[in-house]
Amino acid sequence: MSKKNRPIEVNIEEHEDAGVTITDVLVGQTKIGEVRPVEDRFDAKLEGESTMRFKTLDEAVESLLMKYNLHHG
Questions:
Q1: Which of 20, 22, 33, 46 has the fewest CB atoms within 10 Å, measured from its CB?
Q2: Which are the contacts of 51, defined by CB distance < 8 A and separation ≥ 6?
Q3: What is the number of domains present in the chain?
Q4: Residue 15 half-sphere exposure toward CB, CA atoms < 13 A
């Protein structure tokens, strides 16, 4: 028997920290991770996990959502 797909609410919020724009990724009202620009790349960090580096912001956000879904799906 397979699971039914259920919709989840994903929000992207930005805020400034020391002149750097930080992108928070939220599922519902829960923050699952953040993305920070570093030089010409983006560092993504899932809450409680190590930092990963990506070329684009979209890749970083997509990776955070995939990792979150893998562990909490």
A1: 20
A2: 43, 44, 45
A3: 1
A4: 5
User: Is 53 within a domain?
Assistant: yes
d(CA 14, CA 72) in angstroms, rounded, equals: 24
Over residues 39-48, the pLDDT tens digits come to 999 999 998 8
Is residue 17 within 8 Å of residue 3, measured between CB atoms? no
Domain that holds residue 61: 10-72
CA separation for the pair 65, 70 (Å, rounded) = 9
Q: What count of Cα atoms within 13 Å lies in the side-chain half-sphere of residue 18?
A: 2
The whole-model pTM stands at 0.83
2 within some domain: no
The helix/strand/coil state of 27 is strand
At 48, the amino acid letter reads G
